[in-house]
Amino acid sequence: MNLESPKVTVEKSAEYLYTQLSDVKNFEKLMPENIAKFEVLGDDIFNFGLKGMPEIKLRLKEGVPHSKVNLAAASDKLPFTLVASIDAITENSSEVKLDFEGDFNPMMAMMIKGPISKFIETLAENMHKL
């Protein structure tokens, strides 16, 4: 299952956004208002829970300086990746798009498609909070 957020323009440099997204504790600023839990578990891993959804652990996997930050589920139960692609527009403005890719059975995919779509859309919309 592949989902993507709309591209959002942020009045920040690509370098700044890359640095912010590479620090897992900054993801708390991006979370939707219905967040039930957010906990940093280490330099490269955090745990979050939304009301009515199971808790998810995300680990910072890799990054391409100033253009891409790759996060992946720390559990094999829900295997997925979340990639933030950053494109510099000017020195002080960038476009960010989030791509979610998960390997789920059809039933699970049908159940989570709506909530996950809304979730990544919210993360993208909140990029200006970084």
UniProtKB/TrEMBL annotation:
SUPFAM superfamilies: Bet v1-like. Gene3D superfamilies: 3.30.530.20. It comes from the Bacteria. InterPro entries: START-like_dom_sf. This is SRPBCC family protein.
